[in-house]
């Protein structure tokens, strides 16, 4: 049975960077953000429901979901955010579970920003947290997405605190430095964890034989 490593961290922490380093080592990724895009792709029933609710202004010129426009709508309204979450979360969860069940690799990286908030840690054998300071989150996310800092701060406020996240962590990667300066250190840390996770997978499968 595939060993499941839950990878999480706050917005702007660099989860994608770390996940991609694992992917370079051949580790399969199940990424909640990727799945979230899949379930609302152009022509999907869920996208039709979102358009019916919010209007066509949340679509791009090519008819795809404009995630930035949608984000502004839901984070300014608790009721709208709840409506969207109630629509999308069950569909995303179902698709992620399907992808987890068909894995045959020694271990898989389960990349979920809201892993803790959505109580998905129970699906994991181990939790890896990408850790940065809150100020770093704010700076990176606002620069990356060209979003207002106020909106990014709202998103941070909806996520568990840094301390709560670290309490759940089995392993931590500190990604608070300049990536250009720490890339080799990050690669080394990922490689060490990769080898460790392979050992844990062997132990788990040995017990299940």
TrEMBL record:
Catalytic activity, reaction form: 3'-dephospho-CoA + ATP = ADP + CoA + H(+)
Protein name, as recorded: Dephospho-CoA kinase
Chain's role: Catalyzes the phosphorylation of the 3'-hydroxyl group of dephosphocoenzyme A to form coenzyme A.
Keyword DNA damage: no
The enzyme's E.C. designation: 2.7.1.24
GO molecular function, one term: ATP binding
Name of the encoding gene: coaE
Family annotation (SUPFAM superfamilies): P-loop containing nucleoside triphosphate hydrolases
Ligand binding (ATP): 12-17
Keyword field contains Cell membrane: no
Pathway assignment: Cofactor biosynthesis; coenzyme A biosynthesis; CoA from (R)-pantothenate: step 5/5
UniProt-annotated location(s): Cytoplasm
């Amino acid at each position: 049975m595939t060993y499941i490593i839950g990878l999480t961290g706050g917005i702007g922490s660099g989860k994608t960077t770390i996940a991609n380093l694992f992917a370079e080592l051949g580790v399969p990724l199940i990424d909640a953000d990727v799945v979230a895009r899949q379930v609302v792709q152009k022509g999907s029933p869920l996208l039709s429901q979102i358009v019916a609710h919010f209007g066509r202004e949340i679509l791009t010129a090519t008819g795809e979901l404009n995630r930035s426009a949608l984000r502004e709508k839901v984070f300014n309204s608790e009721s709208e955010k709840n409506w969207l979450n109630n629509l999308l979360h069950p569909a995303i969860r179902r698709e992620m579970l399907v992808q987890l069940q068909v894995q045959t690799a020694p271990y898989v990286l389960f990349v979920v920003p809201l892993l803790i908030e959505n109580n998905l840690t129970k699906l994991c054998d181990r939790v890896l947290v990408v850790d940065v300071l809150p100020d770093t989150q704010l700076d990176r996310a606002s620069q990356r997405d060209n979003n207002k800092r106020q909106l990014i701060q709202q998103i941070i406020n909806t996520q568990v605190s840094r301390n709560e996240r670290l309490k759940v962590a089995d392993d931590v990667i500190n990604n608070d430095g300049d990536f250009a300066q720490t890339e080799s250190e990050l690669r080394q840390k990922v490689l060490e964890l990769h080898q460790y996770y392979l050992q844990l997978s062997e132990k788990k499968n040995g017990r299940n034989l």
